Amino acid sequence: MLLLALALIATAIGVGIYTVASSADEKATVRASLRQLEGYEVDNVRDQELLAPMKDRTRAPIMGKLTAIGNRYAPDGYVEKVRDKLVASGNNSPDAVDRFVAIKVVGFALAPVMIILVFGVLNMKGMSAMIVAALMVAVLIFGPDAILNRRVEERQHEIRQKLADVMDLLVISVEAGLGFAVSLDKPGGFL
Questions:
Q1: Predicted confidence (pLDDT) per residue in 142-168, tens digit
Q2: Checking CA distances to 145, which of 107, 160, 175, 182 falls within 20 to 30 Å?
Q3: Is 123 helix (H, G, I), strand (E, B) or coil?
Q4: With helix as H, strand as E and coil as C, how does 70-96 read?
């Protein structure tokens, strides 16, 4: 009975989201058509804001709030360590740190929900419930860090594998009479 009620609620939420998304899609189509018209200008600031896609209007404020919360409660130096790890993993995006901090905040926020899910909704009892809850919370809290650390290790391994070939090509180029800077800029580049 409980599963049937949850399924009905999920279906109702899905239908609601579909309805809102389809109407938003229609509005986006109209806005895109209006943008293509020459000389079309929006006088109203509200209408001008509404010309931006919905994902941009909603994602930025949510990410800003989550990042502010994460930066506020993060230990000293944590954000800088995350930035260094992201660079070491090959992700130089300026928004990557903010996204990572936001994911960590969501993980911490979902941890109590998972505990309620295990003990309340799934009605698990005993040691198995404790283990399942602990694993779910650990994945939510430590998962993003583990994934980032794994990406850093993979990139470092890849660099170590290719370093010998790059050094050989540089030596051959320099011995062939090219300068070091020219060897680095050679077509088919080394790095």
A1: 999 999 999 999 999 999 998 888 888
A2: 160
A3: coil
A4: HHHHCCCCHHHHHHHHHHHCCCCCCCH
- The two three-digit tokens of residue 126, written as one number: 């005993």
> Whose structure tokens read 């051959």?
172
pTM of the predicted protein model: 0.63
> For residue 36, what are its two tokens?
């293509």
